[in-house]
C-alpha cells in the first residue's frame, strides 16, 4: 500500500517547516520507502507498518503544537511492491511517447 499524507500543525503561526520536519524525520527513520514533496509525504509498506509511521509522525508534531491537521490518501493494492517508483515510471513512459 502507498499512503500519501500531510501533517500540519495549527496554532503555531505561519512558518510550519520546523514542525513538518519532525514528521518527515519519523518517516525517514522508519526505513520504509518514501518520498517527500512540497505538499505530501508518500510512504509504502504493509497496512500496519505504514499506519504506525503515520501515527508516530502525527505524534511528533502533536508534541509541539496545540492542534494537528492530517490529510491522508491511500492506494490499497495487495501484492504490489515498489509502487512509489513503478507508478511514476509508467507515467514517464507514456510521456516519452
UniProtKB/TrEMBL annotation:
| UniProt cross-references to SUPFAM superfamilies, sorted A to Z | MTH1187/YkoF-like
Thiamine-binding protein domain span: 3-92
In terms of domain of life, where is this protein from?
Bacteria
Under Pfam families, the record lists: Thiamine_BP
Concerning its family, UniProt says: Belongs to the UPF0045 family.
Q: Per its record, how is this protein called by name?
A: MTH1187 family thiamine-binding protein
Q: Which species?
A: Streptomyces lavenduligriseus
Amino acid at each position: 500500500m502507498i499512503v500519501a499524507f500531510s501533517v500540519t500543525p495549527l496554532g503555531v503561526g505561519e512558518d510550519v517547516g520546523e514542525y513538518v520536519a519532525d514528521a518527515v524525520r519519523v518517516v525517514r527513520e522508519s526505513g520504509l520507502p518514501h518520498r517527500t514533496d512540497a505538499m505530501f509525504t508518500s510512504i509504502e509498506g504493509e497496512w500496519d507498518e505504514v499506519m504506525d509511521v503515520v501515527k508516530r509522525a502525527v505524534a511528533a508534531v502533536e508534541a509541539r503544537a496545540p492542534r494537528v491537521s492530517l490529510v491522508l490518501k491511500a492506494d490499497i493494492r495487495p501484492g504490489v511492491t515498489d509502487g512509489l517508483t513503478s507508478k511514476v515510471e509508467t507515467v514517464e513512459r507514456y510521456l516519452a511517447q
